[in-house]
Amino acid sequence: MLSKKLIIPAMASLAIMSSCSQGNNKPTPADFDYTADRFADIEVLRYQVPGFEELTPQQRIFIYYLTEAAIAGRDMLWDQNGKYNLAIRDLIEGVYTNYKGDRNDSDFKALETYLKQIEFANGIHHHYSMDKFKPGFSQEWLASQAAALPEGTVTDIELLMPVIFDPTVMPKRVNQAEGQDLILTSANNLYDGVNQAEVEAYYNALKDTTDLTPVSWGLNARVVKENGKVAEQIYKVGGLYSPALERIVENLEKALPYAENDAQKDIVTKLITYFRSGDLKDFDTYSIAWAEDTKSRIDFINGFIEDYGDPLGMTGAYESIVNFKNNEASHRTEIIADNAAWFEGNSPVDPRFRKDEVKGVSAKVITAAILAGDAYPATPIGINLPNSNWIRAAHGSKSVTLENITEAYDQASHGNGFNEEFVIDQETADLMDKYLFITDNLHTDLHECLGHASGRLLPGVDPGALKAHGSTLEEARADLFALYYLADPKLIELGLLDNPEAYKAEYYKYILNGLMTQLTRVEPGKDIEEAHMRNRQLISKWVFEKGQPDNVIELVKRDGKTYIKINDYTKMRELIGQLLAEVQRIKSEGDYAAGAKLVETYAVKVDPELHKEVLDRYAKLDIAPYRGFVNPVYTPVTDKDGNITDVTITYGEDYLPQVLRYSRDYRTLPAYATGK
What we know:
This protein is an alpha+beta fold. It is built from 24 helices and 16 strands.
């Protein structure tokens, strides 16, 4: 399975200074407090849900039960991310809430930061770098605090201590290092007692290369050894994670009477069937119904979807987003979707790798109502699903842009000094001020709606042929498609842009980010490992290198600082088209060797001198490299008999109170859900 989720680039929101229509409910900085918390390398924001009050009571109640179902799966992600995560969460939350000493004490403040970090990452490893957090308090101090906890709060302290403190124990949640056993060297809880060769052999034996409608093998399973043989533990009611899935199903059933139409009821019913059976054919049946429903105002995803947390790119992390359509802003995405056949037919890739017929491509701008699982607190800004290649080809796909999320990023970034520090000149900064918000959103629209939906595999090619590099190359393919068409006159013709120079704002930001500013997310001396970051550096370094004979992109030194200067935007677009053609060929043919070479050559290694310079310059700005969100709070309104009649929304909950409430009110799994 290849992931189809667009994560906002490290600096994407930081250079945005313009506005974009959000309808009548667009907030302004004076109306809304966007910042909820700041700690370590993270800033937590709030987002608004404009238009919620204008929905009908029936729609609001439907959203409420969907949000309850979404949050109910939280513990599953924690356990997927690491087998000791839930027990460690119990321990750290227990110490934090029961602490009787001075809360300004340095050890306690360090514990508070550690708690915020693991809550943000849904576990003890950083959500982006995948490295294990280093506590700022001592093992002795934590042991003394644990001993004072009420009896039964936490057990197995001796077992947990090395997991928390020893840097050699479970150091990395997902390892992507070439040449290593990616399962044995990854600390996630998707596999137990098996190695990479055994897992690959197991699934290769299950796959039928003649099957034109294959299921997404491994999507909802933990792979283990049972009686000496490789086996799957299936996520389902009555199987692994049953208590969490039972609570999700309970809330989906409560949502059913409030569905907007029969198609929506059918989707919810099919999802319930899948959660009960664990049968991936049932998941495909649900996915087809979901993809074909383009009429409902309210939409949601819930389940095991994206595979970034699996080093082999197979198992889906639990995730849910509940949303409703932003009718006004969706006008631009509908234009893009309506012209999908033109974009596919004019793509610079070999005609053999294009789709003969573009089916069912739909796109909309949405207002996120809740973020949960792998989408909380850090969230994507765009999603394109289903991930199954044959479903996309036969039944279409749905693309969404979360514009109330990009709006929150935008509003929280005003006046942070990023442009002044990193953009080469005022002319470029002015262009970005004027056009980056709309071109950034168009990039997301094109990436999700058309980029992931474009192209086709040749007959007999395994969708998983690119293995560990699949996610990076798929994100690169979608980004290249979006970048190539941002500069096309067709966008002017369609009325999506009003200036043929506007695309340069996104081109400049993308190269600046890919070559330089995203390095703020990488620790000195380390490689790039996260798929989206690898994708952006791959594109930027390849275009930079191939453009050297014509000086397309230049690194300019000024007063000891490095700046990006793009000398030939037209030639840069040509190079983007050439790389798009090659990446599509690699995917269509399943050319693992060529894909691996491309990733290892351009996407992984970091220039240490440039890296140090970027870190030093960025540190002066005091901008958090990572951002995420707290959710709004939905409260049911009931009549005198206790029947729900409506739902209200509020935004005042802070970060730690929210995650502690989630741990208290939505706990579904034991501390060791899959054993110690």
